[in-house]
Amino acid sequence: MELSLQTGTVADRTILRVTGEIDVYTAPRLRQRLVQLVEDGARHLVVDLGGVEFLDSTGLGVLVGGLKRMRALSGSFALVCDQERILKIFRITGLDRIFTIVPTEQDALAVAPDPGGAEDRTDGGHAVPPATDR
């Protein structure tokens, strides 16, 4: 499966819509795009994973790297995801406590940019529903 990356801007937020699979083969393209967005001046980034069909540990590492870059610049980094199979990966790895994760782009735009990141928020900084037994 190929990886598609589309970028847009809404107000002060840069939105990166990701479609396809994020794995060892495609993650370098995602990393390159995130770095380019930061170099181009993005400080409030929303990564929409709604079209992602597969996410492996390499992809998780790229997303963590993007979060670290934004924090170093006092920026914000939010993920949009409502797919249970992808959300489960974040819960299993504990990354749901690190990232701000919301179900829609509208929710991401409604959340005030959080330069400290989710780990500094009293509510855990995420909107991932609790795990269900499936």
Note the topology:
Blueprint: E1 3-10, E2 13-22, H1 27-39, E3 44-55, H2 57-72, E4 76-80, H3 84-93, E5 100-102, H4 105-110
Parallel strand pairs: 2-3, 3-4, 4-5
Antiparallel strand pairs: 1-2
Helix pairs in contact: 1-2
What does this structure look like?
- By secondary structure, this protein is an alpha/beta fold.
- The chain has one domain: Transcription Regulator spoIIAA (2-Layer Sandwich).
- Strands 1-2-3-4-5 form a 5-stranded mixed β-sheet.
- It is globular.
- The C terminus is likely disordered.
* The CATH top-level class label: Alpha Beta
**Net shape:** globular
CATH architecture: 2-Layer Sandwich
Q: What is the arithmetic mean of pLDDT?
A: 88
Distance between the termini: 26 Å
What is the CATH superfamily classification?
STAS domain
Individual helix count: 4
Q: What is the number of beta strands?
A: 5
Q: What kind of sheet is the major sheet?
A: 5 strands, mixed
Low-confidence stretches: 116-134
CATH topology: Transcription Regulator spoIIAA
User: From N to C, what is the helix and strand string?
Assistant: EEHEHEHEH
Function: Positive regulator of sigma-B activity. Non-phosphorylated RsbV binds to RsbW, preventing its association with sigma-B. When phosphorylated, releases RsbW, which is then free to complex with and inactivate sigma-B.
GO molecular function: anti-sigma factor antagonist activity
Region (Disordered): 111-134
Domain STAS: 3-112
